[in-house]
Specification:
Layout (H helix, E strand, L loop, with lengths): L1 E5 L4 H12 L3 E6 L6 H11 L4 E4 L5 H10 L2 E6 L6 H6 L1 H21 L4 E7 L22 H19 L4 E7 L1 E3 L18 H10 L5 E4 L11 E2 L1 E3 H16 L4 E6 L5 E2 H12 L5 E4 L8 E2 L4 H7 L7 H14 L8
Parallel strand pairs: 1-2, 1-4, 2-3, 4-5, 5-6, 6-11, 7-10, 8-13, 9-14
Antiparallel strand pairs: 9-12
Bound molecules: nicotinamide-adenine-dinucleotide and UDP-4-deoxy-4-formamido-beta-L-arabinopyranose.
């Protein structure tokens, strides 16, 4: 039985593809390459020594999605595909609602038609909005405050309704915290098309000399060093979480919602300092205004994942930075130039 990875050419999808193949699964990737490169799939093949069936498909094209289900024997779907920039979602809300929701409707329609009712969905800690308490448990209130986050919550709700209407669906909603790092080989990693929004790829580009300095967004937060604190999680730990989520589906779990985080937070300044150690260079930075919409601190209570998935994060901050740097230094232009 094959696993369909929508958005499987992207950052988290490509790393998960490696973990799935290494756990004995067969992977089929569907991606429209709107924010990724087919080279990532080739690199996954290089790392694993296995062929990956790749469809350049927009999920909103329902007949094209149905063709995949006709041609491949799909047992489960991991649904990564979506647009993910908070800032862009504020500028272009309709594009975000349209892409993320329509892609999910189209996918679920095809899954229903072909009686494939096992789904893992990439949700986000962003659904918690500004948390009242940390660490965050899964039953914490949800209140996303940007269009991107709202698409994630809406899709969770759509999938809850789908499960309620037909309990033979098994659906795992994974709420990722802050994915960082890269495969230890340095062959695949995060490759933002434009100037990165996220901290770790921004630091990496400063380290490689493509950007001048890191702007630290605010040093007046009520945190130990006054900069924002997040739960950074190594992308290979996240990938392994998906392997465990598939096992959960096979136990006929119904609808299951779970955080994937490490349970500990690091500040912006701690991240810069850890990256300096990994790359052996000084990272120039400057304190600037807070970024609108940012929260002070956010980290997961990962105990449900440990109890129900038998999963916990293994990599620490040193490996997150070392592997991100290996990827960046081996591929200074990302997938663009080898
Ligand atoms: P990414 O942009 O690298 O990967 C998403 C992939 O989906 C891209 O390859 C893109 O080309 C593809 N895609 C987008 N719309 C599509 C469509 N209509 N049809 C087919 N393919 C389409 O992002 P990522 O970081 O790998 O994130 C994967 C998922 O995890 C996303 O749903 C994202 O919202 C979610 N997530 C990401 C983070 C993060 O910080 N990276 C955190 C929490 C949740
Ligand atoms: C981390 C910290 C910034 C960049 C976002 C999305 C969230 C999820 C993960 C998808 C914060 C600070 C950042 C910079 C900085 N994505 N920072 N200078 O904001 O926690 O989460 O990505 O679901 O939905 O909102 O991640 O990496 O952007 O920021 O000082 O150039 O680094 O203020 O404290 P964030 P981030």
């Amino acid at each position: 039985m094959n696993i369909l990875l929508t958005g499987g050419a992207g950052y988290i999808g490509s790393h998960t593809c490696v973990s799935l193949i290494e756990s004995g699964h067969r992977a089929v990737v569907a991606d429209n390459l709107s924010n990724s490169s087919a080279e990532a799939v080739k690199r996954v093949e290089r790392i694993t020594g296995q062929k990956v069936r790749f469809y350049k498909t927009d999920l909103r094209d329902t007949p094209a999605v149905e063709e995949i289900f006709k041609s491949e024997s799909i047992g489960c779907v991991i649904h990564f595909a979506g647009l993910k920039s908070v800032a862009e979602s504020v500028e272009k809300p309709l594009a975000y609602y349209e892409n993320n929701l329509d892609a999910t409707f189209s996918l679920c329609e095809a899954m229903r038609k072909f009686s494939v009712k096992n789904l893992v969905f990439s949700s986000s800690a962003t659904v918690y909005g500004n948390p009242q308490n940390v660490p965050i448990k899964e039953d914490a209130p949800v209140a996303p405050f940007n269009p991107y986050g709202r698409t994630k919550l809406m899709i969770e709700q759509v999938l809850e309704d789908l499960h309620a209407s037909d309990p033979s669906w098994n659906i795992v909603l994974l709420r990722y915290f802050n994915p960082v790092g890269a495969h230890p080989s340095g062959l695949i990693g995060e490759d933002p098309a434009d100037i990165p929004n996220n901290l770790m790829p921004y630091i990496s580009r400063v380290a490689i000399g493509r950007l001048d300095e890191v702007r630290v967004f605010g040093n007046d937060y009520p945190t130990p060093d006054a900069t924002g604190v997040r739960d950074y999680i190594h992308v290979m730990d996240l990938a392994q979480g998906h392997v465990r989520a598939l096992e959960k589906l096979s136990e006929k779990c119904g609808l299951f919602t779970c955080n994937l985080g490490t349970g500990r937070g690091y500040s912006v300044l701690e991240m810069i300092s850890a990256f300096e150690k990994a790359c052996g260079k000084k990272i120039p930075y400057r304190i600037t205004e807070r970024r609108p919409g940012d929260i002070a601190e956010c980290w997961a209570d990962p105990s449900l994942a440990q109890k129900e998935l038998g999963w916990r994060a293994k990599y620490g901050i040193e490996d997150m930075c070392a592997h991100a740097w290996r990827w960046q230094s081996m591929n200074p232009e990302g997938y663009g130039k080898e």
